[in-house]
Amino acid sequence: MANSHVYLSRLLLLLPVLLPRATLADVGTAASYGPPYNPTACYNSDPGQFPADSLFAAAGQGIWDNGAACGREYIVRCLSSATPGACVQDQTVRVLVLDHATELRSTPSANDTTMVLSKPAFQKISTLSAPVINIEFAVV
């Protein structure tokens, strides 16, 4: 009987290693947009809302969460695109949500996406020749 307890204890120790790791990332789509960026749905015309590196995004309807997405940060990675060679391999970008995709002042490269990235953010993970990309994203 003692051997079965030892065996079970060792199995329980190995269980986290044997099981596939759960991920907290979601998948969706992203488009890009350029200026004018101001005013935004989150912070109106405050010029101090924009990060110095211009890495920000507008939340699509699926992640907007009645405005709760304002100020959220996401890590975003390009997974694929209908445009061959669009993704920058092994590259991620960290973006700050400043706007709602349905209220942008400029026209995005595609509509109804999970998020719309500023052009500098989009270029970190993809070529601008791709109007839309498939992404993996997670809240930071």
From TrEMBL:
<feature type="domain" description="Expansin-like EG45">
    <location>
        <begin position="28"/>
        <end position="140"/>
    </location>
</feature>
<protein>
    <recommendedName>
        <fullName>Expansin-like EG45 domain-containing protein</fullName>
    </recommendedName>
</protein>
<dbReference type="Pfam" id="PF03330">
    <property type="entry name" value="DPBB_1"/>
</dbReference>
<feature type="signal peptide">
    <location>
        <begin position="1"/>
        <end position="25"/>
    </location>
</feature>
<dbReference type="InterPro" id="IPR009009">
    <property type="entry name" value="RlpA-like_DPBB"/>
</dbReference>
<keyword id="KW-0732">Signal</keyword>
<dbReference type="InterPro" id="IPR036908">
    <property type="entry name" value="RlpA-like_sf"/>
</dbReference>
<dbReference type="InterPro" id="IPR007112">
    <property type="entry name" value="Expansin/allergen_DPBB_dom"/>
</dbReference>
